[in-house]
Specification:
The complex is a heterodimer.
Chain A lengths: L2 E2 L1 E9 L4 H14 L4 E6 L8 E9 L10 E6 L5 H7 E10 L14 E5 L1 H8 L3 H20 L3 H11 L4 H21 L6 E2 L9 E4 L1 H11 L4 E4 L6 H14 L11 E4 L3 H13 L4 E5 L1 H17 L3 E7 L16 H5 L9 E3 L4 H18 L2 E7 H5 L2 E4 L14 E2 L1 H6 L17 E2 L10 E3 L13 H19 L6 E3 L6 E6 L2 H14 L5 E5 L1 E2 L3 H9 L2 E6 L5 H10 L6 E5 L8 H13 L5
Parallel strand pairs in A: 1-8, 2-5, 5-6, 6-7, 10-11, 10-12, 12-13, 13-15, 14-15, 17-18, 21-22, 21-24, 24-25
Antiparallel strand pairs in A: 2-4, 3-4, 9-16, 14-23, 20-22
Helix pairs in contact in A: 1-4, 1-5, 3-4, 4-6, 5-6, 7-8, 7-12, 9-10, 16-19
Chain B lengths: L37 H15 L7 E5 L3 H4 L9 E4 L5 H11 L4 E7 H5 L3 H9 L4 E7 L2 E2 L5 E2 L22 H8 L3 E6 L3 H13 L3 E7 L15 H7 E10 L14 E5 L5 E6 L9 H13 L3 E8 L6 H5 L11 H4 L3 H7 L5
Parallel strand pairs in B: 1-2, 1-3, 3-4, 4-8, 7-8, 9-12
Antiparallel strand pairs in B: 5-6, 7-12, 9-11, 10-11
Helix pairs in contact in B: 1-7, 3-5
């Protein structure tokens, strides 16, 4: 086995031991060498003491998904040693802390084992239990640097940046790097056949997680009120919003804030606050995950019917119920699309990576204010909490927020009478007013039956007129949401359709299939309701593999329900074990289907 | 909910307030509650209070949840925005609205079912935040719209129209609010407008969370003999401890208020209320003694009313959070967006 810039390193540690910063240092060093990387965190729902893994995929080809193999395992956790060793690809390498003897029972003759006495070296050089543990992590980075040929100057520069304010830490960290590095050099043939070489493929790119990007996107969108209840894996979204607000939204003189973050008592309250704030005209959002959507559903239906803007980020995790809170899935598609009792439908956006999390934040606010309805951005744990290489984020200075149809005091003054739910333009969207503007703008917001004039009603015709108008608005939404990404290969009757975090694995799979002379067309949907382009794409093909990360083919259900797609064409390819989807899975499933006779 | 428009005929001689509006301008649609419902008296008291306070109708926001009480915002100040939300969730909507626009005056009208059962979580957390709002509970001890089930404020031993007496401990919104640090706590009776109107005025002007718990009998399901929330029972065991007068900023506070029996309290907005003690043993500025007094009188079967606690020194939500004076909803986008150059700069740490 020999490969340059195509290697997967997996580091097994114990959570709460500070390995995250060491792993970040390693990932960043490779990125700084101009080589694309993917960083995935597989962590427990726990604070300290349970197994956790960080996986770095070095991908010279610039792929985004995880790879379904491990070339180099860094087994730092005795608890998981056996399974970690079993995971290494034949011909791969296992690095372990040789301070303590390995069990002779655990061995494989098809991999190479590299023992480095990390604990012993660090115990000799550093004082204090905490420092020794932290430095042991840094020392394995040094060893990997030697084995994979990672430039020490790059690591040094990164440490200098990180510890600019604590200079003494630069020296001790460098010392730990050296310990691991020099030991590996002295005792093993470095570099390994799989290693890293400088490239120039990361210029103009950053590595960021989706929650940070989405939180930043909310700042740029001009959001002022964030209400939330902490829930994994969405918490870091509000953390990011807070970080950037404290940087950009605090008056340096008065120290007054132009943002308001409220940690609600539960998700029921969080969404209520979002509705209240949007009702008075402040851009307001809430980040949550599946269980939060369940709790918010009553208010989401209210907002649909009373027509109040709201932006909800659902960073999906594995369900049902509490499920696996630190594992990923795309399992809230149906529950979000039709959240709440009664006839309700909601506009959904599906970001495929952190960059889209950023750009879809202002888009979500624009759509929610234009359409006066909740918009849900369906990210997931894989996008939200993992490290993705994406093109540097850009901001268009010409952007003007779309605040939708809002009548101001002057317009109201000139009106004879204002009616809240009267469709004067035929697009299903009615004018709204904000409290505090003008007495003529007053109306009664209610979730009970109302007529187009805004009054309470129990009259069948009056009721039906309003809910039918909401269907007109739904069609308006269909023409406003972002268009799907569609790619045609050679003449072909078969295609892959996916959304969100399925994008990376599917694109990589398309390349691999192409190499086998199987050229499939591709459609990556970005929003619900589905556009005309999505409908005709499906119509054009005989077979459409719908790749998604849930058990019940929820997206396929939406396609059948919303655009009457022919269910016989839609072949579900489902990955739902909680791990991010990988290209190997897609390739394997497509080949299986082809073998079954659904010829491509 | 009403759908009956009220005729707009008013007597030319009706008195006008400083805005040139008459009390009729503060009315709403015709009530569809039962004849004699205590809630309609509360509505009338709210109309009088905001009329006399010269509140600009469009600067008032009327918030509610679900239930008979929650219908009432449709029956006052039709020139104000109203938000009839979902059951028990009025506090969260009001919190968000207030977060977005701190310049509005918020009045939330809730009931004992809405606030003490399904919405008890939101009720207590709005208090903890010291949300600047006037929170009215129209408290009748029963669920009206679903036809007479006990609510969480029903007293032990209180009889329903049919069936067994209530055996569960009641939740008293006043002592709950007191324990959570609410900064203006009053209790009154829908049948005592003279006491209620000044209490509502003080509550509307108070900066921070003000609770006005109003015994408001349900004539249809809880006004019979054996009920502790009936008109008759409330009148019999009703006990004023502190009444208040509202003093307009332009009025001088009269020296006639002798120390010990009257106490002026200066509100944030420049207004003043004067407390007049009816019961000398009561101190409305001490949480500890208020607690003991309320408990003792409750055990004696009395319904203590008046301004039961007031604390003007604690900061409300925005002040606690150091939020901008300008409502967040009024800020210009340019002042909220850090711009392209800054985005470029901040991404260096992601490389």
């Amino acid at each position: 086995m020999a490969a340059v810039n195509d290697v997967v390193i997996k580091i097994a540690t114990v959570n709460g031991t500070g390995s995250a910063s060491a792993n970040g240092l390693l990932r960043k060093s490779i990125f700084r060498m101009g080589v694309p990387v993917v960083g995935k965190n597989y962590f427990p729902s726990n604070i300290q003491g349970l197994p956790t893994w960080y996986e770095i995929r070095v991908t010279g080809d610039g792929y985004h998904a995880r790879s379904n193999r491990v070339d180099v395992m860094v087994a730092m956790n005795a608890q998981t040693y056996a399974r970690d060793m079993a995971e290494v690809v034949p011909g791969g390498w296992l690095i372990y802390d040789s301070t303590w003897p390995r069990s002779a029972l655990l061995n494989r003759d098809d991999i190479s084992v590299i023992g480095i006495p990390l604990s012993r070296m660090c115990n000799e050089r550093f004082d204090g239990a905490r420092a020794r543990i932290l430095m042991k992590n840094i020392a394995y980075v040094g060893a990997i640097a030697a084995l994979l040929d990672i430039d020490l100057d790059v690591i040094t520069a990164l440490l200098e940046e990180t510890f600019a304010a604590k200079e003494h830490l630069i020296a001790s960290n460098m010392e730990a790097i050296r310990l691991g590095h020099d030991y590996a050099r002295e005792h093993f043939a470095c570099p390994l056949p799989v290693h890293v070489e400088r490239m120039d493929a990361t210029k103009g790119h950053i590595v960021i997680d989706g929650n940070t990007a989405a939180g930043l996107g909310c700042v740029y969108a001009g959001a002022t009120v964030g209400a939330w209840y902490p829930i994994t894996p969405s918490t870091s979204l509000m953390d990011a919003f807070r970080t950037y607000c404290s940087k950009y939204r605090v008056d340096p003189e008065t120290e007054k804030r132009t943002y308001c973050i409220i940690q609600a008592e539960d998700e029921l309250a969080a969404i209520g606050m979002v509705l209240g704030a949007n009702w008075v005209g402040a851009r307001s959002f809430t980040p949550t995950s599946g269980p939060g959507i369940s709790l918010m559903s009553e208010f989401i239906g209210f907002a649909y019917y009373a027509e109040i803007p709201a932006v909800i980020f659902n960073v999906q995790r594995t369900g049902p119920s509490t499920g696996m809170p630190t594992r990923t899935q795309q399992c809230d598609i149906v529950s979000c699309a039709y959240a709440s009792h009664g006839d309700t439908m909601h506009v959904l956006l599906f970001p495929a990576d952190p960059a889209e999390c950023f750009y879809m934040a202002p888009l979500a606010f624009d759509l929610s204010e234009r359409l006066q309805t909740p918009i849900m951005v369906l990210s997931d744990l894989d996008i939200g909490m993992n490290d993705w290489m994406v093109p540097e984020l850009e901001w268009d200075e010409n952007y003007v927020p779309d605040r939708g149809k809002v009548l101001g005091a002057e317009e109201l003054e000139q009106m004879d009478k204002f009616y809240r739910y009267l469709d004067v333009d035929g697009d299903g969207i009615t004018y709204r007013t904000l409290p505090g503007e003008h007495p003529k703008g007053a109306y009664f917001t209610r979730g009970s039956g109302h007529s187009k004039l805004g009054g309470y009603t129990e009259d069948s015709d009056e009721y039906q007129e309003v809910v039918d108008r909401l269907l007109v608005k739904w069609e308006t939404a269909r023409n406003m949401v972002p268009e799907a990404e569609i790619r045609y290969s050679k003449f072909n009757k078969a295609a892959i359709l996916t959304y969100g975090s399925g994008d990376g694995a599917c694109k990589e799979a398309l390349d691999r299939l192409e190499a086998r002379n199987i050229g499939l067309n591709y459609c990556r949907v970005k929003a619900f309701p589905f556009t005309e382009a999505v409908r005709s794409f499906i119509e054009q093909h005989e077979v459409v593999y719908v790749v998604e990360q849930n058990r019940d083919a929820q997206f396929r259900t939406l396609l059948i329900n919303d655009i009457d797609a022919d269910q016989n064409k839609l072949v579900p390819l489902l990955h739902y074990n909680g791990m991010p989807i990988n290209a190997g899975f897609v390739v394997e499933k497509v080949l299986e289907e082809i073998a079954k006779g659904r010829a491509a | 909910m009403t759908y009956i428009a009220k005729p707009r005929v008013s007597h030319p001689g009706l008195p006008k307030n400083e805005l040139g509006l008459t009390s009729r301008d503060y009315e709403g649609a015709v009530s569809t509650l039962c004849a004699g419902c205590g809630h309609d008296s509360v509505t009338a008291a709210i109309i009088q209070a905001v009329f006399e306070l010269n509140v600009e109708p469009h600067m008032l926001a009327k918030m509610s949840g679900i239930g008979c009480s929650s219908k009432t915002p449709a029956y006052f100040v039709s020139q104000s925005h109203g938000f009839n939300s979902v059951h028990g969730r009025m506090p969260s909507v009001t919190t968000g609205a207030n977060a977005g626009n701190r310049d509005l005056m918020y009045i939330g009208v809730s009931g004992d079912g809405d606030s003490l059962s399904i919405g008890v979580g939101q009720f207590v957390h709005a208090i903890r935040r010291n949300l600047n709002m006037c929170y009215v509970i129209e408290n009748n001890g029963v669920y009206g719209l679903t036809k007479g089930q006990f609510s969480a404020s029903a007293d032990i031993g209180s009889l329903p129209k049919k069936g067994m007496p209530n055996q569960q401990e009641p939740i008293d919104p006043v002592s709950t609010a007191l324990s959570l640090g609410a900064t203006y706590i009053a209790r009154s009776f829908s049948g005592d407008k003279e006491q209620l109107v000044p209490l509502l005025k003080g509550a509307l002007l108070h900066s921070g969370f003000s609770l006005v718990d109003i015994i408001s009998p349900c004539v249809t399901f809880n006004d019979h003999e054996g009920s502790t929330k009936s008109y008759a029972h409330t009148r019999e065991f009703y006990h004023h401890v502190v009444n208040i007068d509202y003093v307009h900023p332009s009025e001088e506070i009269k020296a006639a208020y002798a120390e010990g029996e009257a106490m002026p309290i200066h509100l944030h907005g420049g207004d003043t209320i004067v407390l007049r003690k009816v019961d000398e043993g009561y101190d409305p500025t001490s949480r500890a003694s208020a607690f003991k007094f309320l408990r003792d009188r409750f055990n004696a079967g009395e319904i203590t009313t008046g301004l039961l606690y007031v604390n003007e020194s604690r900061e409300e939500m925005h002040e606690l959070m150091h939020n901008a004076d300008t409502p967040l909803s009024k800020l210009k986008f340019e002042d909220l967006n850090p711009g392209a150059a800054e985005l470029e700069k901040l991404q260096r740490r992601f490389r």
